[in-house]
Amino acid sequence: MTLPLSVSQIEFKKILLIRFARLGDVILLVPSIRALRSRYPKAIIEVLVDHRYAGVLEMCSAVDRVISVDRLAMKDGGKMRAVGNMFRLGQELRATAYDLVLDFHSFRETHLLAWYTGARWRLGLKRVHSSYWPFCFNLGPVLEDDDLHVSAVFLSMLGFLGIVPVSNGHLLDLNSELRQEADSFLRGYQIEAGALRIGFNLGAGSQSRTWPPQKFAELAERIAQHNKAVVIAFSGPGEDSLSSEFCSRVRSTSVIPAPNLALSQLAALFNRCDVLVSNDTGPMHLGAAAGVPTLGLFSVARPNHYHPLGAASRWVSCPSIEQLDTETVYQHFLEILGSLPAQHSLLKDTNSDQ
User: Is residue 168 in a domain?
Assistant: First the structure.
């Protein structure tokens, strides 16, 4: 890659990143944000994001300001009102006088916003299945490699700045207040000393990605055969039936329901788990970013593109999520458990019954 010498050597002072959605993609942008912070320690780094996911970036110390917008509301009320809303947002961004804008979302509206900022340098991602307006940028484009992990695609954008990626190990920063809130929640339950804390993220937003709650219950029973464990059952809005069915089927271990948490609360409670087992959904990435080894359950999506980050994380895939058998998931769970420090792993010798 040939870099404009002046760009690779500039010490940018104000940087804007654009990525409106989705939850998982916003989380997977964090390694790029941290790489930018490492390269430009004195710069002001701001991120334009949908208000539903702003809470994630507010837990990232590498971000100076989160610009939260209700992207869907901006489009309500007809085309003229939508254009007016976009114009007002563009005016706010233009007034900030950024010297570098990176469009990680790369839709037509974000292309135009990047262009309208008037930033001296503008770089966009040319996506495989989306239009690209080259007049909006004066660097690149960066071609999306659909075979790479999403976080690696985002990091490839930084090659034009001569930036070498940093480790993905440190993603989100959980302050003491969040940690104390999570600990206070758990103290409300009688958790046996030394018990493993296993998180189950039961929902996924669509049936094709949702491992049936009865299979999650089978996994809980299987884990309880060989470990002292408590299961924290996470569920979101509209997923009460999943949580109820799961809880009603578990007999051999304690279950702590954790429904409808804010993103910051969810991250903090994930952080208090030893292992998280999750469907392929945004909270899966949040768990990994919060530092918990995560087992992702995949069906329709491609794991190589979306698997959870983290050296101890794993994934398992099946063309139909309902056909993913409990024993396969359990064996992947054991791999994660075996990789944990000795003080966390209470696993007994399971070879005797195999």
Answer: no
